[in-house]
Write a structure and sequence with these properties.
heterodimer; A: mainly alpha; two-stranded antiparallel sheet; 3% strand; B: 307 residues; mainly alpha; 12 helices
Chain lengths: 642, 307
């Protein structure tokens, strides 16, 4: 516990000192040093808890059980690497003050969110986390686009917090205190009340996590933020939403069937639509942001499957669903963090995020390119990497569900398999597009030159994350016992069956096959090199079917690559195209933004015009409003005593 | 996992040596329908030997990825082949290997699309884009087909699925529907007519062939070899739907394997002779229609299960 508290202290001191310092270099040292030391001290207790030394608790309203420790490790590990990366990234960057002040604060707030054991403390930390990330998103506030993104993020996150406030206040009214332990003792709640609480938690936490249709802020905020912050937000901050859903699940008692069903439906929509929109993007970071929606969808499908398994007393579904979802939380933190760091290196070197202007970077940035390739394969769920293992667990769960269930759950589990499979196919299309256009071929825009590989402190974190992608893919057994004990913590009545052992013993066969695959590839490569040694090898121009003067502008672009799918789904995506003989452009506007949030806010705007007319921007008026609200609330409390 | 050496060696041997032969059968069938004599049955072997003895030409644009990709494709296709039972039990089988099978093939697709984009040719980009699009759609039907198989046979391993222990499947409506669906997936995944024409001469209309325009020599040989192996795997998988493997390994099962795959190759040859290639814009519709057939198979299964 002492480690945990000192970790907070390091982070807060880092934030404060870097705010007070004047010299840019000291600022950087204070902030990044604070994050690094804080992360390492925070990782120690988390690793101890996960290793089975028992949960930590204290007189303070904070505690560290397996679930918290699991998320804490992801948060602090990615923060540590991001801090290391920022060392190189921040060279010559403006906005040092904002970055250095709020970066440690964001890490500290995320840490506090997962260890808080009190509703009130949780909400405060949640709010600090949202605000710190808001300031980081708007760090480059000179551009109107960034200000717009920040505005959307601020509204989205506060709407979500409103639902969370409702959630915790209702629980407080029932339990008489804000302590999580008292919440747990409440169950069973009445069906309608727990239903309302479930929906409030789903909307509140789902907005942070980026579940469709509440994901609208993600594709705006992630590209606006500086790249290391995008990695932090997309890799781990949105996972606090997943943590929240799982934590709320422990308060609400045994779930009815429709919770799991709702989650699976939401997950399928997030997964498929997330990747479809990703495919249509031309902005590297916006594309990655949409892929977070897809991966959160896969995690939510896993959680939904776990809920259904719990309701129907089917422990194998419960275990496969939850272990798959939790493992995907770590995996997504690893490869999405890596992808955003890689994108950051690309943007740092080329000063553009437009995919269609780039090309041929693999030769100029070999480390960034190779690690980006590994992460791309991992996010597509391809063997032999970590993404495959977690998707495999969820797949096996869904296959088993379709064998053993009937009626609506059967239909949903089949839809889940098909949804993840289709999302996987589209993800392959999407990441071959990104990697192919950005890193392969020739540069499409000749004005971008002098591209150099990024500095050592940026390459090391990317290398570590790429190694983790491979390592967790080859040896997932390392994490599995931890995942199973978290499942047991979530539901103490859970029984481990022999069917489970069978499934998990499959994983060791998978490891053997992966090693075999790698050996086969390596030996074939050596053989080919040997084979070609005595032969004549020539270099020539790319064959363009007889055309003698190919130019780099003739290459296929990202827009043309995604066009067939865009055309097929034009009813859904409604792309806005403008084409001339020598020019083609295609843009899509998000479905939920276009047909849900935009009309909603327009209505609200029209409805509230009469309020605006009264507004004279005088501070006395606002003070009076606040006073009147308080008086009304007081009277309400006196008369009705809610 | 029980393990016996002889079937394992024979499995590897069949998987590594025989696939190009069946491309020869398809070519012969097509030649027969066109009234020609056609190339010899072993023509693909001659081609492969010729290619492996040549040097190579690489594009100036290409990165090392271009050289690694063919190796990855061959290795993944081969490992996928170790999961599929072709004569008796598969060398590797476990709960959930059907997902690994599908994803290994997806890895091969990932590699070939990147290799196509590596050289920066607009033609190859076009082929890559089509491969990615149609691959996603055929994955949709393929996974649904796998779910239907898993539900019908109550198994999660290709080995158990294609060795029905309790019911003999032939002429059950579900399997006829699935056979049809998997046959169309076979045509799509292996770029045969009516999806793609392996012998076309117009780069604008190609899918698979246009992606490998910049390959030469041994690399091209590897790609040709892996394509034949992939076709072999899909033919084995599809025919097993109507004619499953025996439970235990016997010498005779090698004979039946060749017989049924040769039959399948002739069927592909007939389909290719009798049809024209679809317009590219129609292909997603074709694949979605195939998906609907699989949905129908699912409904049949679920209703059977309910009664």
């Amino acid at each position: 516990m002492i480690f945990l508290i000192s970790s907070f202290l390091f982070l807060l001191i880092g934030s404060l000192l870097s705010f007070l310092c004047r010299c840019e270099e000291t600022k950087k040292w204070m902030a990044l040093g604070g994050v690094m030391v804080g992360s390492v001290t925070g990782l120690i207790p988390a690793v101890f808890v996960l290793a089975g030394k028992g949960p930590l608790s204290s007189s303070l309203p904070i505690g560290l059980d397996l679930l918290s420790a699991f998320f804490l490790i992801a948060i602090l590990f990615v923060s540590l690497l991001t801090a290391l990366y920022s060392w190189g990234y921040l060279k010559g960057e403006p906005h040092m003050t904002v970055y250095c002040t709020f970066f440690p604060l964001l890490v500290g707030a995320m840490e506090a969110v997962v260890v808080a054991r009190d509703g009130f403390l949780f909400l405060i930390c949640w709010e600090v986390m949202s605000l710190a990330s808001f300031f980081l998103v708007t760090a480059e506030h000179e551009t109107p686009k960034v200000r717009h993104a920040g505005w959307i993020y601020l509204i989205a996150t506060h709407l979500a917090t409103a639902f969370l406030m409702a959630f915790f206040v209702i629980l407080f009214k029932k339990a008489g205190s804000f302590a999580f332990d008292d919440f747990v003792r409440l169950s069973p709640l009445s069906a309608s009340l727990s239903g309302i609480l479930f929906l409030a938690a789903l909307i509140g936490f789902g907005t942070k996590a980026g579940i469709f249709p509440f994901h609208v802020w993600l594709p705006h905020a992630h590209p606006a933020a500086p790249s290391p912050i995008s990695a932090l937000m997309s890799g781990v901050m949105i996972k606090t939403g997943i943590y929240g859903i799982l934590r709320a699940f422990t308060f609400l008692g045994p779930p009815p069937l429709w919770w799991g069903e709702t989650l699976i439906v939401a997950g399928i929509f997030s997964a498929v639509l997330g990747v479809l929109y990703a495919l249509m993007q031309h902005d590297l970071k916006r594309l990655l942001a949409y892929h977070s929606v897809e991966n959160i969808g896969i995690i939510v499908i896993g959680i939904g499957l776990g809920f259904i398994g719990r309701t129907l007393h089917n422990p194998i579904l419960q275990l496969l669903g939850f272990t798959g979802a939790l493992f995907h939380v770590w995996n997504h933190a690893i490869f999405k963090g890596l992808l955003f760091l890689g994108a950051g290196s690309v943007v740092h070197a080329t000063h553009t995020r437009a995919i269609d202007r780039l090309g041929g970077l693999l030769k100029k940035m070999p480390v960034t390119g190779t690690t980006f390739l590994i992460a791309s394969a991992a996010i597509c769920g391809l063997p032999p990497l970590n993404g495959f293992i977690s998707e495999w667990l969820i797949y096996v769960g869904l296959f088993r569900a379709s064998q053993s269930l009937s009626q609506l759950p059967l239909f949903l589990s089949v839809a889940g398999v098909v949804g993840i499979a289709f999302a996987g196919g589209l993800a392959i299309a999407c990441f071959t597009k990104v990697f192919g256009v950005v890193f392969l071929g020739e540069p499409r825009d000749p004005t971008i030159d002098g591209v150099k590989e990024s500095s050592l402190s940026m390459r090391v974190p990317m290398g570590i994350l790429a190694l983790l992608c491979i390592g967790l893919g080859l040896y997932p057994q390392f994490v599995l016992p931890v995942l199973i004990s978290i499942c047991q913590q979530l539901d103490p009545s859970l029984l481990l069956t022999s069917a489970l052992n069978e499934t998990f013993s499959s994983l060791s066969t998978i490891s053997i096959i992966f090693v075999m695959l790698l050996i086969l590839i390596a030996s074939l490569l050596i053989f080919c090199r040997f084979q070609l040694k005595s032969k004549i090898i020539r270099k020539a121009l790319t064959w363009d079917c007889g055309y003698a003067l190919p130019s780099s502008r003739m290459q296929y672009t990202a827009a043309s690559f995604g066009e067939p799918i865009g055309t097929f789904f034009r009813v859904l995506l409604k792309p806005i195209t403008s084409s001339r003989a020598d020019h083609f452009e295609e843009h899509v506007v998000d479905l939920s933004e276009r047909s849900f949030f935009a009309p909603l806010f327009q209505r609200a705007n029209r409805f509230l015009t009469f309020v605006r007319r009264q507004q004279r921007n005088r501070i006395q008026d606002y003070l009076m409003y606040i006073f009147m609200t308080l008086v009304i609330l007081l009277l309400w409390e006196v008369w009705f005593g809610i | 996992m029980e393990f016996s050496a002889l079937p394992f060696i024979i499995h590897i041997f069949i998987l590594a040596i025989t696939p190009p032969f069946f491309l020869g059968i398809i070519a012969k069938t097509k030649a027969f329908f066109a009234g020609r004599k056609g190339p010899p049955l072993l023509q693909v072997y001659y081609d492969l030997i010729k290619l492996f003895r040549k040097g190579a030409v690489y594009s100036k644009t290409a990165s090392p990825l271009l050289k690694v990709a063919p190796v990855i494709i061959v290795a993944t296709t081969f490992v996928a082949g170790l999961l599929l039972p072709i004569t008796g039990k598969a060398p590797f089988h476990f709960e959930g290997d059907l997902i690994l099978f599908a994803y290994l093939l997806a890895l091969a697709r990932f590699a070939i699309i990147l290799a196509a984009l590596d050289v920066g040719s607009s033609f190859e980009g076009m082929g890559a884009s089509r491969e990615a699009t149609f691959g996603a759609f055929s994955e949709l039907a393929f996974f649904l087909g796998l779910v239907v198989l898993a539900v019908t046979t109550n198994a999660l391993s290709l080995n158990a699925i294609f060795q029905w222990e309790s019911v003999h499947p032939t002429l059950k409506p579900v399997f006829l529907l699935l056979f049809f669906s998997f046959f169309l997936i076979l045509l799509t995944e292996n770029s045969r007519i009516p999806i793609d024409d392996p012998n076309t001469h117009l780069e604008l209309t190609m899918i698979h062939e246009v992606m490998v325009l910049d390959y030469s020599g041994p690399d091209l040989g590897l790609i040709l070899y892996s394509a034949s192996m992939k076709l072999f795997l899909f033919m084995a998988l599809t025919t097993s739907l109507l004619w499953p493997q025996p439970m235990e390994w016997e010498w005779i099962s090698i004979g039946t394997l060749f017989l049924k795959i040769a039959g399948m190759a002739v069927a592909i040859g007939i389909v290719e002779s009798a049809n024209a290639r679809l317009r590219l814009i129609k292909i997603p519709q074709f694949l979605i229609a195939n998906f609907v057939v699989t949905v129908f198979a699912l409904l049949v299964t679920v209703f059977n299960k309910g009664t």
